[in-house]
Fold:
Amino acid sequence: MKHRVSEFLAGLIFGLGLILSGMTDPSKVLGFLDPFGLWDPSLMFVMAGAVCIGFFGFSIAKKRTLNFLGGNLSFPGAKQIDKPLVIGAILFGAGWGLAGFCPGPAIVSLAAGQIKAAVFVVFMLIGMWMFSKVTR
Amino acid sequence: MNIDWLHFTPGLSFLGGLLLGLASAAFILINGRILGISGILGGFIVPKNGDIAWRVAFILGMAASPFLASWIFPTGVLHAPKIDSAFLLIAIAGLLVGFGTRYGSGCTSGHGICGLSRLSIRSVVATLTFMGTGFLTTYCVRHVF
Structure:
């Protein structure tokens, strides 16, 4: 139960952060991704704020073997810069730049009742499903 | 370069960023997991036993956030989101984001926030790459076609 509550709260705080920062507004995201138009640099401040706290959190986590609830700390094991990493990031960036949605904000906007976010999430899940078919 | 001063929100965006960092730090320290949305969602596609409940709890928390936000903040503090892209473009973008984030093992949260925070070289490369193609794609959509 402690696990479920802390996971729920993490999702809640993360969602609140996405809303406050402006990440859930695709027109703002695209305003950031368009420095040759009328540029809105706000998203640089999002990343700065996130890494400020994140850096300390992960510095502590790296020194520990167990999490606060007594379970494992699972860090990604992969170290290599490989083709899937780069091609995947290229495809993701193209989709992000097309509509201004990345996965988290899309989920929050869907919950807020945005019909276009719902369409985005459905096709995003189809994309994830296609990936699972290709790699199996 | 022209700055969009009307929509520029350095304070709110930084504050929102602090919350994103806080949630990511709490998630690794308390639950021992990387807070990456595409990874969390991806686990629903090929479900494994005993690996679903935590994903559901997290997503429900995210889904509750707009209600918390509208309860805390009086109207007018937060901009109403604007989605200009046509439905067809949204669908294509969804496919690309879904496939790409799984293929590249992460998105703006897992690679961007957590990856940069833990100084992972893979995540730095991924973040620079998707930001780069993001800039390029938006440039093409707005200034070329």
Residues 42-62 of chain A form the longest helix (21 residues). Residues 2-135 of chain A form one domain. Chain A touches chain B through 116 residues (CB under 8 Å). The mean pLDDT of chain A is 95.
